[in-house]
Design a protein that fits this description.
The complex is a heterodimer of chains A (112) and B (112). Chain A is 0% helix and 56% strand. Chain A has 112 residues and is mostly beta strands. Chain B has 112 residues and is mostly beta strands. Chain B is globular. Classes of the chains: A mainly beta (112), B mainly beta (112).
Chain lengths: 112, 112
């Protein structure tokens, strides 16, 4: 079945790198996404990766995809206090117009 | 660009009542999806509307229904409210392509 798993909490010091991990089960995933949710707000798309790619870099964000292990990670370089939020991994199985399957989210706390 | 707008932002209803939530998609987007996010959980797909028809549906009962209008805006209706329907309801709009969805800030529904 379809399932996306994430660790629930991550705490880092300001200036360090953060790595948020995600595993998914459906091998027919086409796109994988990372969303950010701040308290009381909706979801903000951070980045996405197509399933035939291994890596994507966008400024401070690096996404790594290991399709064999169905493992996705998001690395945030030089983490700032403003990065404190909940980060959701999501997979789209039927292409970009397909419904998104979300994990439960990883709460990132950045300590000054 | 106003992005995705949802109304109302907060709502309190009594068990057994009916509720209608509204969504205006981002300018230029033609597809609207609705998600339910319970406290501490990731969003769960309810259904998606395209060309005024329900194109996909998640695992939600028939008490959940929707509509899309010619201007692409959408409504989510929930009948016979249960306490368990208390959640943040997120609307997302999109165009075909890998950019994923643009989410609104959501409607916080509390059923008492």
């Amino acid at each position: 079945g379809e399932d996306v798993e994430q660790s629930l909490f991550l705490s880092v010091r300001e200036g360090d790198s953060s790595v948020i991990n995600c595993t998914y089960t459906d091998s027919s995933s086409t796109y994988l996404y990372w969303y950010k949710q701040e308290p009381g707000a909706g979801l903000q798309l951070l980045t996405y990766i197509f399933s035939n790619m291994d890596m994507k870099q966008d400024q401070r964000l690096t996404v790594l995809l290991n399709k064999k292990d169905k493992h996705l990670s998001l690395r945030i370089a030089d983490t700032q206090t403003g990065d404190s939020a909940i980060y959701f991994c999501a997979e789209s199985i039927r292409g970009s117009q397909g419904n998104l399957i979300f994990g439960k989210g990883t709460k990132l706390s950045v300590k000054p | 660009d106003a992005g995705v707008t949802q109304s109302p932002t907060h709502l309190i209803k009594t068990r057994g009542q009916q509720v209608t939530l509204r969504c205006s998609p981002k300018s230029g987007h033609d597809t609207v999806s609705w998600y339910q996010q319970a406290l501490g959980q990731g969003p769960q797909f309810i259904f998606q509307y395209y060309e005024e028809e329900e194109r996909q549906r998640g695992n939600f009962p028939d008490r959940f229904s929707g509509h899309q209008f010619p201007n692409y805006s959408s409504e989510l209706n929930v009948n016979a409210l249960l306490l368990g329907d208390s959640a943040l309801y997120l609307c997302a709009s999109s165009l075909d392509g890998p950019q994923g969805y643009t989410f609104g800030s959501g409607t916080r529904l509390t059923v008492v």
